[in-house]
Specification:
This protein is mostly helical. Helices cover 82% and strands 0% of the residues. It has three helices and no strands.
């Protein structure tokens, strides 16, 4: 998901209002809320989709702010993500060949 220009303007305005330190704290809060909703779903074996979507949206917004705060460009992020995806697939391939099941 990529934000459109209008959304980015709003995100920037919110970041400027609260400041970098405030938004770093907010990122932690939003991540914790997403963790709680995922854990609820695991604990109750129920569908918590709506809450997870809401908390994921909050986290997504905050991650965009973190990219702004730390001056992370999208290509940098894509490069690291691609490296991590490839590394994980290599581990899976090795484990499949060795008949080993490794979970995170």
């Amino acid at each position: 998901m990529n934000f459109i220009r209008e959304q980015l303007v709003k995100i920037k305005k919110i970041r400027e209002y609260h400041g970098d330190t405030g938004q770093k704290k907010k990122i932690i809060e939003e991540l914790q809320e997403l963790i709680v909703e995922i854990q609820k779903e695991l604990d109750t074996n129920s569908d918590n989709r709506t809450c997870i979507i809401e908390e994921s949206a909050d986290v997504y917004i905050m991650l965009e702010q973190l990219q702004m705060i730390k001056d992370i460009n999208i290509m940098e992020l894509h490069d690291v993500a691609n490296f991590k995806l490839n590394r994980t697939l290599e581990i899976i391939d090795k484990n499949v060949k060795g008949n080993v099941m490794v979970s995170y």
